[in-house]
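Predict the 3D structure for this chain.
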Amino acid sequence: MKRLLSSALLIVMLVSLISACGSSNNNAGNGEGAATGDTKENKLVKLNVVMMSTNKDDKDEVVKAVNEITREKLNIEMDVTFISYGNYVQQTTMMLSSGKGVDLLPIYMTPLATAANNGQIIPLTKLLDQYGQGLVEAIGAEYIESGRVGNDIYGITTGRDLAKAYGFEMRKDLADKYNIDYENITTLDQLEEALMTIRENEPNIIPVVPPNGELVRNWGWDPLGDDMTNLGVLMDFGKELKVVNLYETDFYKDFVTRMNRWYKNGLIMQDAINNTENTGTLMKAGSAFGGFANLKPGFDVQETRNYGTEIVVSEIVPAYSTTTDVQMATWAISSGSKNPEAAMKLLNLMYTDPDVMNLLIYGMEDKHYIKVGDAANGQSIIDYPEGMDGSNSGYRPSGGWMWPNQTIGHVWNGNPADYWEVQTEFNNTAIRSEAYGFTYDSSKVRNQVTATSNVVAKYHHALMTGMLDPEETLPVFQKELKAAGIDDIIKEKQAQLNKWAAEQKK
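Done. Predicted structure below.
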């Protein structure tokens, strides 16, 4: 059973972490690390760090600079492997299953509980007590608890937007050209009208691109840990603790029916499910208008920076937060790591050292970025050097949210100087699911999860991108889900949620 600690237990945890700073007697794991409280390894340790990103031409130069810091402070060096978005789950699953090629990585698009229950990652609680004091202070005990599976912490969330809004990103030049009032588009009806304008006036432009074949991952429900498959969800931002079959709701039917109409009207990219490009790439190439997006403060600045084309956004679904959002990217230590103590020490440094984070996210100062002002957190406001943009940088700053803690680092130009404080406010004011803090364990219905996941893969994205007619396909989809055992999953998920809610007195 996964649950948040009570306030009293959180206090005890923090006290134990703080007191651990003065301890020097206990080791954890089988690596060659120094005793508790010691910072440096006795021998130079080399660790494999895996990260989701397209490869960067100047990676080796950047990692060399990072290793100068980590070697001096910890006697540790890292080797970084970048894996693209489309291959990340498959390749990291293979790495974790084999126990080779990875010590540290963010668990992404795979439920944290799945990786923990499969024995692919190790419990971190004792290592946090010994070597993660700074990390806990940087992230906060509440968010540390979101990485709990059973009795142990298995993953550490990143310093980022821990809530999400949903909406649509679009090219500003085309929005301005056709007087599209993007700041006041708040419904799908209004968005559809704007898209029809593009379709009628720009026949060679794709109005809606589903990035990598996925139109939108969520539209206001709490997936309760099943972000990719939605096997039992809470509707309406999780306002009620009633687990339902998303694929049998009127909400889902109405949404995919609308998307089918859009597809037939030429608003959505043809053969969308097989698209391997992201929206920004096609917007920059001039062949697309926009696409649905997971929004946060400064998203338009981020996309403009990444693709060199001015991007604006329309927010349609307001910001909300679920446990799944917090667990979406959680750093973990592979069960195959021979040096878990060193891995935790390195992780602690990445969460607390601005120099390390700035290098890993932004690259080399004066080569990949320049300082143009002062940020509120004591760091700098930065931008590309003259003549450089995301298309010609040897270390384009993408995926900063997946690195351990971008909030201790620089702020990109175009965002306010207090951008990280704005992000914190975004997290704190978002609608919170009533199930916030609950983590679902699917181990009792593992066979049903496998079977239903295969059914979802067969129909869901094709329905969401409008390629299949819901009147014909949805009944077949629902019938196959029933046969695969989705009712068993929902029953188990509801039972766990009820128990958790009783313990939380919800």
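Residues 1-37 have pLDDT under 50 and may be disordered.
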